[in-house]
Amino acid sequence: MSLFEKSGQSVGDNSSAIQVTGDAYFGNTTTEVMAICQLMVKSEMASLREDAFALVDSRAQEFGHQIAEKLSKDVDEKLRAKLADPDIQYTLNQAVVQVARKGFDAKSELLKELIVTKIENDQEDQSILIDQALDTTSRLTTNDIKFLAFVYFLRSINKMVGSINITELAEKKSTHFSLPNISLEENYMIHRSMYAVYETDYIKFLGEHFTLKRLNQQLLEIKGVFFSDKIYNINYLELLSKRTGYDTLTSDASFYEAFPATKLVLDSFGISTLTELDSLVINPVGMIIAENYLKAHGYIS
Fold first, then answer.
1. CA distances from 33 to 20, 68, 91 (A)
2. Does residue 188 surpass a pLDDT of 70?
3. If you ran DSSP here, which 8-state letter would residue 24 be given?
C-alpha cells in the first residue's frame, strides 16, 4: 500500500488534502514532504532511545523542509502526484535514513539536490541514473565527491555572460558583437584565472585546499563512478590551451607553471601526472553526482 492515499476531505486555499496512513492530514507541499520524512524515520528507527529518536526525528523534519523549499512552487500539483509514487517514497526513505543517522553535511546537501532532481524529472532513463547516483553517494566520501566535481568543472563547466557562452568563444578564438568589452585576450584572461587562481572558482566548491585528501583510485572505480577502460579524446593540455590562449602548454611542467591552483588541487588529490588525470573518466552516474553537488553549493543552477 502506498504511504499516501487520497482522503476526500476538502480544504481551503486551493489545496487538496492527503491522508497519511495513520489518520494524519496535511494540506501543503512542505508539510507533506516533512511528514514523509518523519514517517520514514519512525518506521526505520523506532527502536532508538527517546533522546536519540528525538534527534533523528528533528533531522528528518529539517531535511524534508529543505527539500520542499527547493521545489518549484509551480509544480505543486505535479509534486503531490509524485509523492504518492512508491518509487519517490523509496528514494526519500534511503536519503532520509542516511541524513537522520549522519546529520547535515556536504553529502546531505547532495542527497537533497538529487531527490529534488528526481522529483522534477520525467525521463525514465534519467530517473534510473539518479537512483543509482543516490545509492552510490552513500558509499562515497566527501573527498570522493569533491574530486568528481573537480573533473566535471574542468571538463563540463562553461563560463556564461548572459546567454553567451564565452568558453566556446575562447575555444573558437572568436568574440561576440553583444560583448564589446570582452576581447579575445580578455576572455583568455578570464579563463586563465579560473585555473590559475584558487580563489576564483575552486574555493567555491572544493573548500580550503588543505581539506582535500589523496584519492584511492582503485576503490573509486569499484564504487562505480569512473569508466575503467577509457581515456578522454581531448587531453587536458589541449583543452585548457584552447580556452586560455596559451600556445606554450606542451608538457606537464608548462601546464603546472601556467595553472598553479590546478597543480595544487592535483597534488592534494595525489594525481601526479596529466596522463593519470586523463585516464580518470567520469561515467554518467559520476556526472550526475558531480553536477548535483555543484548545484547544491550554488556554483551552477
1. 11, 6, 12
2. yes
3. E
